[in-house]
Design brief:
The protein is an all-alpha fold. It has helices at 3-32, 34-37, 41-69, 76-109, 114-117, 120-143, 166-216, 222-266, 273-296, 299-336; strands at residues 147-150, 155-158. The protein has a single domain, classed as Up-down Bundle (Rhopdopsin 7-helix transmembrane proteins), CATH 1.20.1070.10. 84% of the residues lie in helices and 2% in strands.
Length: 337
């Protein structure tokens, strides 16, 4: 194994570790906080988190074994099952992000009717559609025997070994990426740009009120005025940064792999195996970044994490106090005798 393979293996191990810990923490927050569970986005987050964990414990280790061994890491049946999961989980992840963006769009653009338009039942229907949509392509690929080990990506995924099926498989792969990656990307752009438009409109209204107040307050200290103007600037940038993060992480993680798959099928240009594995690692890295982008950096999840940590520390302090008390009583007993 050369230095490139060792680096890719290390990247996979790091991605697996971060993904496992962060997604498990999101699940703990969902189990701990009833307030989070009562909200419709919790279903989308749960669906995304469970998919990320399944990818972490099944697909990533097999890809790691493929990188290290430079061959198929398991038997044909297990590899087909892993390829089925890989295709399903990739589509499910993208569509779950699209569902979360739709939820944010409804909440920001239609705040007064949000509770009526986005109930738990509606969220459950959206998750059910996500599953059906994501299951359709791997089921068709399984029926057509287009699941197996792909040497370029060192992973069990969509592949076809028969040259006479190249055109059909290319059309199938293009349709899969168009109805998963491209569709989700268009939904993300539409919804988040609408959210950004509303956020900027509200920022302008707040800026007008702030400037009018500053004009009226003639005797205000210059430092206070500067702080108000700086807060104005931060307020304008906050929504843009968040939306850039949502769309940017989606593109950075998924676009290289999708483009590589399409170039591989529709071009005769050779693709290096290291780039193929790296693009697959980038797609896997979305499972590690999702908990931070969509959950753990939000106030409710941070509050839930603090409560879980405080509860663990309190239990530990009670146990240590109990052990100290027991040892103290054992030291006193011989003296009393």
């Amino acid at each position: 194994m050369n230095s490139w393979d060792a680096g890719l293996a290390g990247l996979l191990v790091g991605t697996m570790g971060v993904s496992l810990l962060s997604n498990a923490l999101v699940l703990l927050c969902l189990l701990h906080s009833a307030d989070i569970r009562r909200q419709a986005p919790a279903l989308f987050t749960l669906n995304l988190t469970c998919g990320n964990l399944l990818c972490t414990v099944v697909n990533m280790p097999l890809t790691l074994a493929g990188v290290v061994a430079q061959r198929q890491p398991a038997g044909d049946r297990l590899c087909r099952l892993a390829a089925f999961l890989d295709t399903f989980l990739a589509a499910n992840s993208m569509l779950s992000m699209a569902a979360l963006s739709i939820d944010r769009w409804v909440a920001v653009v239609f705040p007064l009717s949000y509770r009526a338009k986005m109930r738990l039942r509606d969220a459950a229907l959206m998750v059910a559609y996500t599953w059906l949509h994501a299951l359709a392509f791997p089921a068709a690929a399984l029926a057509l025997s287009w699941l197996g080990f792909h040497q370029l990506y060192a992973s069990c995924t969509l592949c076809s070994r028969r040259p006479d099926e190249r055109l059909r498989f290319a059309a199938f792969t293009a349709a899969f990426h168009a109805l998963s990656f491209l569709l989700s990307f268009l939904v993300l752009c539409f919804t988040y740009l609408k959210v950004l438009k509303v956020a900027r409109f509200h920022c302008k209204r707040i800026d007008v009120i702030t400037m009018q107040t500053l004009v009226l307050l003639v005797d205000i200290h210059p430092s206070v005025r500067e702080r108000c103007l700086e807060e104005q600037k931060r307020r304008r940038q906050r929504a843009t940064k968040k939306i850039s993060t949502f769309i940017g992480t989606f593109l950075v993680c998924f676009a290289p792999y999708v483009i590589t798959r399409l170039v591989e099928l529709f071009s005769t240009a050779p693709i290096g195996s290291h780039w193929g594995v790296l693009s697959k690692c980038l797609a896997y890295s979305k499972a590690a970044s999702d908990p931070f982008v969509y959950s753990l950096l939000r106030h409710q999840y941070r509050k839930s994490c603090k409560e879980i940590l405080n509860r663990l520390l309190k239990r530990r302090s009670i146990r240590s106090a109990g052990l100290t008390g027991d040892s103290h009583s054992q030291n006193i007993l011989p003296v009393s005798e």
